Amino acid sequence: MENKKSLSKNAQIILKSFDDSTKLGDLRKIAKEIKKDHLLAMELWSTALFKPRQLAILIMDNKELDKAKVNSLVEDMAIHDENEQTQLMDWLFANQLTKSKKLVQLIESWRESKLPLQRRTYWYFEGRRRWKGKTPPENSGELLSIIEQAIMDEEAVVQWAMNFVAGWIGVYEDQYRARCVQLGEETELYKGMKVSKGCTPNYLPEFIEIEYNKRLAKEPK
Question: In the listed set 72, 100, 128, which residue is the last one of a domain according to the structure?
């Protein structure tokens, strides 16, 4: 952790503005005022504190990020609890990694990364491609075979993302739907898990049925 006395005056002022009541909206307002400031971002990141690191992600310049620097950021996240780790990684993904072609290519190389957060991000990215896009990518069969073989041996954070991919493959691709449902029945991942009102269960047979029917109902009669 960076000694506060060694931080710039600007970084110290920002740190003093944080307290337990600081919300995500507050961080976004601060980031909007700062815009991009990569040096300040790295100062805030060096504090090893969760909220300053969230702000740091928002004001980073992705042109300054490469494979080594991103690996270092992800490794730094290990000091946080699992919830904070996934939040930081999701913010890095949404606010920096997906905004650059070279960093998207980096994500695409993470399927066998030694870092679970990077593997999770690879699988989440593949699921998001299906969820966001109208045309399913051509590698669904390959990914589904990998998921079927490896999902039960993966760490929980990666399991969730692999399950996410299988869910959206099952929703959008008729030829794989039965396999995806069967995968859920065999693994029983998330079966019986309660979800918040309005949210779709992660258990694959339920997820696929609900999300597929939502889209079927929207099709022209």
Answer: 100
217 pLDDT band, cuts 50/70/90, is confident
My answer on whether 122 and 215 are in the same domain is yes
Q: Kindly give the residue spans of alpha helices, DSSP state H, lying in 101-173.
A: 101-107, 116-132, 140-150, 156-172
Percent of the chain with pLDDT over 90: 86
What tokens appear for 4 in the block? 């506060």
* The two structure tokens encoding residue 96: 């920096």
For 8, the token pair is 């710039």
Domain that holds residue 124: 110-220
Q: Which residues contact 41 (CB under 8 A, 6 or more apart)?
A: 55, 56, 57, 59, 60, 61
Instruction: Please indicate, yes or no, whether residues 178 and 207 belong to a single structural domain of this protein.
Output: yes
Expressed in angstroms, the distance from the first to the final Cα of the chain is 60
Is residue 128 assigned to a domain? Answer: yes
CB atoms closer than 10 angstroms to residue 185: 12
